[in-house]
Amino acid sequence: MKIYAVCGAGIGTSVLLKSNADRVLASLGIEADVQAVSVSDAMSAESLAQIVLITPELQEQITGIRSEVIPIDNIFNLEELTLKLSAALS
Known about the structure:
With about 90 residues, the chain is α/β, with parallel strands linked by helices. The protein has a single domain (about 1-85), classed as Response regulator (Rossmann fold). The chain has helices at about 15-30, 40-45, 55-60, 80-90; strands at about 1-5, 35-40, 50-55, 70. Helix 1 (about 15-30) links the parallel strand 1 (about 1-5) and strand 2 (about 35-40).
């Protein structure tokens, strides 16, 4: 499974979100390839991500993609990430 953690440039918020998503997935016993990417990378026609994690303020920029888009209100809240990833992966 491929998951994108997305922010505007792919080098700030997305790296933090990726790190926390990796921790949550490990605690759930789920193997996934999580990558920190920019909005333009997530919108690419070559995107292979099944899930896109993104902050609500950028969510409207991600349209027309085949990935499931999951808005994350607080990238540091591991409980929120756990609930949303568990729901998406079940």
